What we know:
Strand order of the largest sheet of chain B: 2-1-5-4-3-6-7
Distance between the termini of chain A: 43 Å
Largest sheet of chain A: 9 strands, mixed
Strand content of chain A: 25-35%
Mean pLDDT of chain A: 90
Radius of gyration of chain B: 24 Å
Oligomer: heterodimer
Structural class of chain A: alpha+beta
Helix content of chain B: 25-40%
Number of domains of chain A: 5
Number of strands of chain A: 35
Low-confidence stretches of chain A: none
Amino acid sequence: MPSYTIGIDVGGTFTDLVLLDDSGHTRQFKAPSTPRDPSQGILEAVEVASRQMGLPAEDLLGRVLIFAHGSTVATNAILERRGAKVGLITTRGFEDTILIMRGLGRVAGLSESEITHYSRTDKPVPVVPRTLIQGVMERIDYKGAVVAPLNLEDAERAVESLARKGVESIGICLLWSFANPTHEEELKAIIEKRLPHVSVTASSQLIPVIGEYERTATTVLNCYVQPVLRVYMEKLGELLKSKGLKRSPMIMQCTGGVVPTAEANEKPIFTLNSGPVGGIVASSFLGGLLGYENLLNTDMGGTSFDVGLIANGSMLMTAPSIVARYHVSVPMVEITSIGSGGGSVAWIDVNKLRVGPQSAGADPGPACYARGGEEPTVTDANVILGYLNPDYFLGGRIQLNRKLSEEVIKRKIAETLQMDTVEAAAGIYEVVNAQMSDLLRKVTVERGYDPREFVLFAYGGAAPIHCAEYGKDLGVSQIIVPLLSSTHSAFGIAVSDLNHSLSISEHIVLPAKVDRIEANFKRLEERALEMLKREGVYQESSLLQRTLDMRYGRQVHEIIVPVPGRLTTPEDLEAVIAEFEKRYEMLYGKGAAFKEAGVEIITFRIMASARTPKPVLKRSQPTSSDSWQALKSRRMAFFRPSGGFTETPIYDSEKLRAGHELTGPAIVESATTTIVIPPGRKGRVDEYLNFIISA
Amino acid sequence: MEKKIEPGLLSVIWNYLVTTAREMSNVLVRASTSVITAELMDHFVGIYDARGGMVAAHTVLPPIMGIGRFQVRDIVEKYRKDIHPGDVFIFNCPYTAHGTHLPDWSFAAPIFFQNELLLFSFSKGHQLDTSGAFPGGYFSGAYDIHAEGLCIPPIKLYSKGRLQKDLWDLLMNNVRFRQEQEMDIKTMIAALKTCEERCLSLFRKYGKKTVKTYIDHMYDVMEKSAKEEIRRIPDGTYSGESAADDDGSPQRYGVPVWVRCNVEVKGTRIKVDFSGSDPQVNFINSPWSNTHCYSCISIFTTFGPELALYHNEGSFRPIEVTAPERTVVNPRYPATVGACPVNVGTQIMFSVLQALGKARPERVIAGGVGNFHFAEWGVDRKGRRYFAGTFNGEGGTGAVCGHDGWPHLGPDSCFGALRKGNVEVIESRHPWIVRDYRLRTDSAGAGKWRGGLGVHVEWISDTELEHAIVTGPSDKITTRSYAVAGGEVQPPNEQYIIRARNREKEIVYGKRGPFFLEKGDIFIQNSGGGAGWGRAMERDPEAVRSDVLNGYISLRSAQEIYRVILDPETLTIDQEATQKLRGGA
């Protein structure tokens, strides 16, 4: 009896399901998403899989060992403002910290062009209104010493006031609580006694790091989504159980690993933005298989272009990160986005052709969807240029109307710029490619990486149409369109390890006693191992990765530095400092390091991972390089180097075999993916059936 | 024959150059030790052409956007044939290098491709120190410009790639925080390098001729766009005026210093004339380059937001600025200029915008409360000497048609680039305990759209060691801002020290100090908000109610200023009484 691993990524349009079996087969399924209640879409995806595999859902789910999914429930609750009624308790005098937002809130999370618009730079409507924020008398100083003890009467009053207003969850964030959590703990006990049904988050337990604004925002957002996620997870768990699933579902986190339901319920904020992170994990897995350590991951969907880096085998992390325009202290796999997707709208700004960030979205969508879309989009350009087959979009699920594309591009772009429609479409294709190329250069070069040492992964609905172009000038060694490029994130979620990320701040000026540094890591590691044991997944092979947020004396921003293992001697510490300097110079250029200023540690972090069973992907032996048997038709497609429209062979991706090669111009089509290979570029199929484009 | 411009390629090249300028800024922000550069974002970077025309800029600190137009030209004129690959120029002097105030050090490097000087990379940042009587340069009592600090004319810091060691030693021997400043200057130069690399790869890809053609075209496009915006301003001459509280000289305490302007709009041209402004004084004078930049950016703010990222040489072409010599807006050597950029700079902005507010109110932002930060020095928590600017007391900005002002944002001139430090971070670095830090009820000017709120901050000095503050460029304690379209002006800023030894309250005006603090002394800042836009009585009663709920305005203001009657218990709107009250006015 085979056993299965299931990974699910709930997207805006489709819920993707990837199923791995223990013989190394991977299968992908799609069902329409059901935004009102995502569990319905998940069940439907399971049904689709069950039908297509000819296996009753009970049998299918009964054989599942790992059921992991990326949930947008928490993210959407914040974006759509459907979270809980949250109360917040702060140090008296600092009730407005979350409203002041350090002056960052006005522009945080906006694109540069949005920042220039007054209308887009209002602060977000507060997640917790001023009326539900209570200050209490207490104060701890920067050394962690109690300056004023918690005034219990005042604390009772604050809790009572929130109780009267009917809050569903309460966050506590007091100044310096990460250095001394006693007042937060006392408050938590008072609340739990008085309001046993209200969920409580103390900032010192959730994320004990310096910076009261980010800590408060993290705590408040955690409270905001907690009841919503809990209800959803309970319902989904019940539904899946009734359908035969024997295991508790796991949920994807922004840290790049999954956690069991119970843990996610405590720290729901870690489930934010986890979908795109799945894609990075998938690349990491495939990269490991193919022997690549440096991966540039590009996901182009309907509305955005998301980029994440894997360097020397590790996913690049960032903290703080921005969620719904708040800065949160949660370390996340770093994803940089711009509004360049298939639905991005082309427009003219003083004689200059621009694309995005506005998007026609899934509804009404591009003009060619014939659902009333009146704006020229990238997809419309791709139809005109012959890249997309109007009769075979999403395997024919949506019939595209080429005439509508032509009309809208002619009317809104070509006539204004006095050029013909095809030229205008080619312009849109080139501008959006250049924007993506700019972003790729930014995320690599600005971080000190040389793109020539990277391979580029292209996945998501639209990336394979554009990747040969946006990857061209970077000098990456090759471009890989994975076999499951349209369900790459779901695949990544399926192969994610289980992990916990813990951090704590202590400002230490180096050199310092190694013991003092070691003690902080020890504390974090003990807690993490305890969590893994409690979940029953602790193994000898559990991995504890240490990092430090470090900076030069008096600098304002830190960089994350990995610490290879236990620190026992002053030389070990010297090695960490050397690593910091190396990374610093990588970021800011040779000679930028400035040891004389002294090096400081601000925050300690550990990531504790327990490996989940991994599939061994099926490998095919290359046979012949001749791809003629996959050739299914020819059509005209536009390629500027060939002088315009060129008769282009179309290959059926299902019929391509390991070892097959082809030369551009060519287009490879499947029900879910279209790959464009420009003239002169080479394509081949590798032994895992990924499609490789020469750079 | 003119080369045909492809809109796609134009977009690609233009965005590439703008992105490059942004990358330069990121280098500065991430690596700088200076809170002023990194958190206040008090820096300016850009790409200029071989004649000093502005190609692209990153708009972190918009008011001095275009400063390199003066400064790069100075280099070109002074050095002409003596500019070589690997040269890096340094300069700050307002009188020989078109500098602003002395802490703003500029750096520029030529970019050569195929042996031709094509562009300049340019970076300018507020340095931790620039010598002078007290740390940081925000001292109002200097005798002349030489007492304010080092005046550096345009000179080569690097010549053909070689650091001029003697010069470097001379400079670094004259600043107080040598280590940090060395690091910051390395960062400024790293930003120039980044720019050079990016520009070279652009030339390699498209060829220098194409890039030059497209840059010229970018200028033309912006000129056309700017003219189109100016055409929409009704022709006429509009006047504005704004005053600084005083110039900080004891003999002129409390005597306002006026900036006055006439803005003449005629077709697609606009002329700003500062005749009638006060004669030059001390400390707050705005050198000519500063005045010019502030005037232009004030006009740019009324343009369509889609232009904001793309301003270049062409944007400046339809604008003419004039100012009589020996006035606060065009001082002559050796007048002091320490607080100029944000102080009289703000008055320049306010007066120009006030004038434009009469012409095109729907595009003009109401006034904020100017600058309200302080500079401090002493011994930090780790026992090291430090200097810092502290911005957590800043007020709000004015409203604009359709939107309330931004609360606690800081000087208008920074356009919200200003960030605030976490109290925990401040307390861990500098010897303060912050006791209270909140938005200040009723601190904004009322209007159909109201100003953003100011804050109330209480700072307790927490050290036995030296700890001093100066109120440097602070202002708008005794003078007022301006509202637009019938909005109301906000209450002024106020600040005072309560001494631990006798509990006495000492009012602290702007441009004063140093005030040496003892442990337990409390420095209290109450900043004003921004001014309002449109009549308060036209504000949506629901918005008024929401402001009361959030504590942004009091019940009393709701009734007396906005004329909205709320039930004091339930805070529901009494529609009938409100209508009656509003209708009766």
